[in-house]
Amino acid sequence: MSDTEFTHEYWMQHALTLAQRAWDEGEVPVGAVLVQDNRVIGEGWNRPIGRHDPTAHAEIMALRQGGMVLQNYRLLNTTLYVTLEPCIMCAGAMVHSRIGTLVFGARDAKTGAVGSLMNVPAHPGMNHHMQVIEGVLAPSCSALLSDFFRVRRLEKKAQKEASRKD
Ligand SMILES: [Zn+2]
C-alpha cells in the first residue's frame, strides 16, 4: 500500500464500495468513510431499515465508529468522505463532532443540507466551521443511486404484474 496515492478520489471510491454494501442489504446506497492521517477510523453505510433506526445513516455510523477508535467524541483533524450530500441530521452531527473536512460526491436536491436545501456548515451562527469539498466522483455516486431506484421500480413493477396473474 506504500505507493498508493491517498487522493480524495481514492477515499471516495472506498465510500462507494461501502455504499454498494447498503444496496446489497436493500438500503438506499450511501457510503461514508472517516479518515485521519491516511488511516480509516470509521466506516458506515446506510442501514436505517435493517437496524430499525432512523439515525443509521452512513455518516452517523462512520462518526460513531471514529469516536470509538479515537476514544473521543471530538473528531479533530479528520476528513469525512460520503457519496451523497449529507442531510440536516448528519450535517449537524458533523458540526458537533468537529471534523476538519467534509468531502461529498453527488448533491441531493431534496434533502441535502450542505448547499442544496440549506447549508448547515456555512451557517454564520455555527460554532465550528469545516472545510467542504464537493463533486468528487459525483457521476459515479449519483449513478449508483439512480441505478438502485431504477432497479427497485422494475422489481415493484414485476411484483405487481406477478400478483395480477394470480
Ligand atoms: Zn443523513
Automatic annotation (TrEMBL):
- Lineage of this protein's species? Bacteria, Pseudomonadati, Pseudomonadota, Gammaproteobacteria, Enterobacterales
The record, for SUPFAM superfamilies, names:
Cytidine deaminase-like (SSF53927)
- Description of how the protein assembles with itself and partners: Homodimer.
Root EC class: hydrolase
Name this protein carries in UniProt: tRNA-specific adenosine deaminase
Keywords of this entry: Hydrolase, Metal-binding, tRNA processing, Zinc
Quote the Pfam families the UniProt record gives. Answer: dCMP_cyt_deam_1
Picking any one GO molecular function of the record gives:
zinc ion binding
Could you give the cofactor binding note from the entry?
Binds 1 zinc ion per subunit.
Q: Per its UniProt record, what InterPro entries does this chain match?
A: APOBEC/CMP_deaminase_Zn-bd, CMP_dCMP_dom, Cytidine_deaminase-like, tRNA_aden_deaminase
